[in-house]
Amino acid sequence: MTKQIVRIKDIAERANVSTGTVDRVLHNRGRVAEDVRQRVTKIAEELNYEPNLLARTLVNNKVYHIAAIIPDPKADSYWQAPKSGIDKAEEELKRYGIRVTHFIYDSLDAASFTRAAGKVEELAFDGILVAPIFYRESLAFLNKWKSSKVPFVQFNTHIPAYEPLMYIGQDSYQSGVLAGKLMHYGCREKATFVVAHIEEDIQNSTHLIHKEQGFVDYFSSHGQEGFYTVIQKDLKATAQHTIAQQLDSLFEEETQIKGIFVTNSKANIVATYLQKRQITHVRLIGYDLIEKNLHFLNSETIDFLINQNPKGQGYWGIYGLADHLVFKKKNNPIKYLPLDIITKENLQYYIEADI
Amino acid sequence: MTKQIVRIKDIAERANVSTGTVDRVLHNRGRVAEDVRQRVTKIAEELNYEPNLLARTLVNNKVYHIAAIIPDPKADSYWQAPKSGIDKAEEELKRYGIRVTHFIYDSLDAASFTRAAGKVEELAFDGILVAPIFYRESLAFLNKWKSSKVPFVQFNTHIPAYEPLMYIGQDSYQSGVLAGKLMHYGCREKATFVVAHIEEDIQNSTHLIHKEQGFVDYFSSHGQEGFYTVIQKDLKATAQHTIAQQLDSLFEEETQIKGIFVTNSKANIVATYLQKRQITHVRLIGYDLIEKNLHFLNSETIDFLINQNPKGQGYWGIYGLADHLVFKKKNNPIKYLPLDIITKENLQYYIEADI
DNA sequence: CAAAAAAATGTGTTCGAACACGCAAATATT
DNA sequence: AATATTTGCGTGTTCGAACACATTTTTTTG
C-alpha cells in the first residue's frame, strides 16, 4: 500500500542497464538495441513510471515566448480580467521560461485585430493565445498558424476546426439555454422576452448568435406554442437614435415584455434605462462581472449575470500552452468552463476567488 | 523588463559570501555575523528573491503523514466527493512525501466520530483534515489539537476558534440567503416557504441552523410583513410516521406552500414525494450534486441545487496542509468556496470539472 | 602567549531527470 | 588486415536549494 516513487534509476537497476539507456528509451532518442528497448519499456510500464516534472523542469532552462492577442482592457473593461489571468499565469510560470508578450487590439475595430495578429506573424513565437472575436478576420490567421504548426490556444470565442491546441471558454449555445431557464423560472405568465445585442456587429460574432439560438430553443421546448414570445433586438447608438430612444419604441410596440436577455457584458445599459423609466417588473439577465454591471446586480435591477470566468480563461490558456511547451503534458482540446450563475447573494465568492 | 530569476548563488555573489552563508541567513540557522546577516537580508529583498519550490522539494524527502477524518461515503454518498478530492490531492502530492490515512466514521453516529478522532490522537500525525459535523463531540478534539500544535484543517463544517490552519467550505448562512433569493425570484405571490431539515440532529449541526437563519433573514428583509411566511420543519422517519406521512399532514395544515428549501443533500426525498403526489407548483431547492438529486434536477422537480464543491473541499484541504508542511507557504485561514447555483442547464460543467 | 573552544564561513553532496560526452564493441570500408 | 564508421551503452555534469561537514577566523581560557 505504501506508494513508491519510481525513478529512472529504479528502472535502470531492474533492467540491468544504465540510467542513460533508460533515458534514451523513454525519450525515443534511438541508439538502443531493440531487445533492451523492449525490456526497459516493459519494466517502465510495470512499475508505472511517471517522470518527476520538477526535476525535469529544473534542468530545462529554455525560454518560451508566447504571444497573447487580446482586446484592449481600457476600451472594454471586460478584458481586464483575462489580462490579469494571463499575468498571473506568467508570474507563476516564469521559472519555467515562459515569457508572454501582449498584442492589444481594439474590440470595435476588426482591422486592428488583423494588424495585431500580423505583427505576431512576423516575430515567430513558440505559442499563441488568442481571443478571436472577429470571425472573418480570424480565419486567415488560424489557418496560417495551423499550417506553420505554431501551437495556439483560442479563448472566449470558439471557432472550431483549424486544430487549436485547445479552446477555453464557455459553451455559448448552452449559456443561452441557461438564460432561458432562469427567465422562465422567474416568469410563469404569458410573456414576451427580448434578446438584446448591444453595440455589436452580430454578423461577425458567432458566439452571440449561438447564445440567442440557445435562448430561443429553450422556449420552443418549454411551454405551449404561442405562450412565450422571443424577439431579437439589435441595439446600437446612432446619430439619429440613442439606445434609450430605441428601447422606448420597443416598449411601445411590445407591451408584454417581461424579461430582457443581453448577450454581452452591456446589460448595465439596459439597467440604466429601466431604472430611469422606473420599470421594475422586467427581469434582466446579462453577462460578466464588470464594475458597471455589479452596481445594478446589487440594486437588483439586474437579476442574474452569467459569469464567463474571464480571469480563468486567460490563466488556463497560458497554462495550456505551458503544459504543451514545457511540461509536455497533453490537454483536453476543449475546456468548457462552468456557466456560473451570479446573483447579488453569491457574488462576493466569485469576486474574491483567485481563479 | 526581462524577468530574471534570482538564485541563492546570485545573492551570494553580490554579498561576497558563499551560498552556505546565504542559506543560513535565509533559514535563520544562526552562526552568521550580524553585519553579514543584514547585508544578505537586504540584498535578498532588493533582488526580490523567491525560493525555487521545485529545487527545494526535490532535495527534501521527508514523509508527512496526514490523517483524514471523514464520514463514510458508503452510508451517505455525498461524502464520496470529498474523498475523491483527497485521493486526487494525495496522488499529486505523493512526490512531496504526503501520505494520507483515512479514518472513517458514521455520519449518523456521533460516538463513531469520537472513536475515529481518538485513534488519530494515539498515532501522532503531522497534519489532520477533519469534517467536524458533530459540534459537541468535535470541540474536545479541536482543543487538544490546538494545544498539541498539530496543524489541522476543518472542512465542510465551520467551528470557529481553536485556530485551525484553515477552514475550507461554504458560508452556510449566506447559502441560506441565496436559497431565499432563488425562492423569491421564482415566486412573487403571497406564499409560505418551508425550511426542511431531513434526518438530522439539528441541535448538534450548527451549519444547518445557519442555513435556516440565512433563509429566514432574506425574507425578513424582502417583501412587506406577513406577505411571505417561513416555517421550519424537522423531518425524520420514525416508527410511527414516514416522512411522506409527515409531509402529507404538513400540506394539509399549510395550504399556501409554494416552496421547500432542504438544508442538506436529501432534497431527493422531498422530490420523490412531490412527484408521487403530482405536486408541480412547489419550488424545490436543495444541496449537493449526488446521483439521487441529479435525477430530479433533470426532471425539473428540483429547481436548483446549491453546490458545495465537495471534491474541491477535500482537495484544497490536503493542499492546505501540504502548503504548510512541505512548501512552507502561508494560506488564508478561511477559504470560502463559491456558492455555485446548479440547474439542469449548467449541471454538466460542474460534473465534468476536475476541481 | 599558546592551546582550546566557539563562532563564522566555505565546500561538497544530494534530490531526479536531461543531455553532452566518451568509450567499447560491432560492423563497414579500403 | 588495418582503419574508419556506426551502434550501443555508461559516465559525469547540470539545474537550485538544503544540509552535513570541513575549514578558517575569532574569542576565551589557563
Structure description:
The structure is a homodimer of 355-residue chains. Chain A is of the alpha/beta class. The first copy, chain A, has 3 domains: 44 residues, lambda repressor-like DNA-binding domains (434 Repressor (Amino-terminal Domain), Orthogonal Bundle); 134 residues, Rossmann fold, CATH 3.40.50.2300; 136 residues, Response regulator (Rossmann fold), CATH 3.40.50.2300. In chain A, 45% of the residues lie in helices and 18% in strands. The first copy, chain A, has 14 helices and 12 strands. In chain A, the strands form 2 sheets. Chain A has a 6-stranded parallel beta sheet with strand order 2-1-3-4-5-11, sandwiched between helices. In chain A, strand 9, helix 12 and strand 10 form a beta-alpha-beta unit. In chain A, helix 1 packs across helix 3 and helix 11 crosses helix 12. Chain A is elongated, with a radius of gyration of 25 Å. The mean pLDDT of chain A is 91. Chains A and B meet through helix 4, helix 8 and helix 14 of A and helix 4, helix 8 and helix 14 of B. Chain A binds a DNA duplex (30 and 30 nucleotides) through helix 2 and helix 4.
Overview features:
homodimer, 355 residues, alpha/beta, Rossmann fold, 3 domains, six-stranded parallel beta sheet, six-stranded mixed beta sheet, 14 helices, 12 strands, elongated, DNA-binding, transcription regulation (chains A, B), HTH_LacI (chains A, B), DNA-binding (chains A, B), SBP_2_dom (chains A, B)
Quick structural summary:
Chain A is an alpha/beta fold and 355 residues long. Helices cover 45% and strands 18% of the residues of chain A.
